[in-house]
Amino acid sequence: MIVSINQPAYMPWLGYFERIARSDVHVVLDHVQFEKNSFINRNKIRSKNGVNWLTVPVSTKGQFGNLAICNLELAGPITWKRKHWESLRTSYSRAPFFDHYKLPYQQIYSQEWSGLMPFLRELLKQHVLDLGIKTPLVFSSDIPTSGHKSGLILDICKSLGATTYLSGLHGQNYIDNKAFIDNGITVEYQDYKHPVYPQAWPGFEPHLGILDLLFNQGMDSLQIIMAN
């Protein structure tokens, strides 16, 4: 039983999905503290003018230090959804598979959302569907959890019957490997080599949101992700 765990992200990068695809269960760690200027509510796309950031506005005033990701409310003018979709349409309308995938995303951006996580959940489910990944998704806010940092990860892995925990590379900075071994769980660290693929504009820009790959490479996207 291979389990991977990652915080939610807005249009996650390719390595995020490689880890999901290699797992038997993937846990979206959405009950922990929100980190400002992270990829939880922002990511990059590529236009003819270069890389552009898209940021989902969230309400954090006076709440830092006690603000779980799953409790984040959306903030700012409601026009951000229209602006994000228009940026995606403008940047990728010439991409080979934009028309094939655009409808469900256009619908997601046209809906009303009660908070950040309902929006990110729907996007992630659509990304996984489009990539053809079958790994079940579990959200930490939906299950009993305890502990902090490495202890929290271990608690989740034990509750899911994990025999292997597939960690991101930065997990080496805080994972207590001995505690995992003592509980019969092997820890593996992802060392993802980013692939190069044709994009809609000349040259190549790595570490963009997943829609860049989907709109440009379509049904070959998962194969490209897993080829490293």
Give a verbal description of the structure.
The protein has 228 residues and is an alpha/beta fold. It has one domain (2-225). It has 8 helices and 9 strands. The chain has helices spanning 14-21, 80-92, 98-110, 116-131, 150-159, 177-182, 210-217, 221-225; strands at 2-6, 25-28, 42-47, 50-55, 58-59, 73-74, 137-139, 164-167, 186-189. A 5-stranded parallel β-sheet has the order 7-2-1-8-9, with helices on both faces. Strands 3-4 form a two-stranded antiparallel ribbon. A two-stranded antiparallel sheet has the order 5-6. A hairpin with a 2-residue loop joins strand 3 (42-47) and strand 4. Helix 2 runs antiparallel to helix 3 (98-110) and helix 3 packs antiparallel against helix 4 (116-131). The longest helix is centred in the middle third of the chain and has 16 residues, at 116-131.
Count of individual helical segments: 8
What structural class do helix, strand and pairing data support? Answer: alpha/beta
Mean pLDDT: 95
The H-and-E topology, N to C, reads as EHEEEEEHHHEHEHEHH
Radius of gyration: 18 Å
- The global form is globular
Widest β-sheet, arrangement of strands = 7-2-1-8-9
Q: Termini separation (Å)?
A: 22 Å
**Residue share in helix:** 25-40%
Low-confidence stretches: none
Major β-sheet annotation: 5 strands, parallel
Beta-strand content bin: 15-25%
The tally of structural domains comes to 1
Overall number of strands: 9
